[in-house]
Design brief:
This protein is of the alpha+beta class. It is 33% helix and 19% strand. It contains 2 helices and 3 strands; from the N terminus they run E-E-E-H-H. A 3-stranded antiparallel beta sheet has the order 1-2-3, with helices on one face. The longest helix is centred in the last third of the chain and has 20 residues.
Amino acid sequence: MPTSFLEIVELPDGRIALRRAEDEEALVTLDFSADAKAFLQGQHIEVAKAMLNVGVQMAGRMAEGDFSNEEEGPRVLH
């Protein structure tokens, strides 16, 4: 993916999106349920920022070849 500035925005429907600054199309969207928002006591935006930050860092590591996934077969995602 070419280098560009990324931004995290809250969409009108309440979802959180990661997108290129010069584009309206979302690269990734996060949608917190009402229960999750209540549990997070209104801090879901901060949680979304942290989640997306780690994801971008991991994608960067993968692009640089620093990430290896040696697991084979089904994976349990926690």
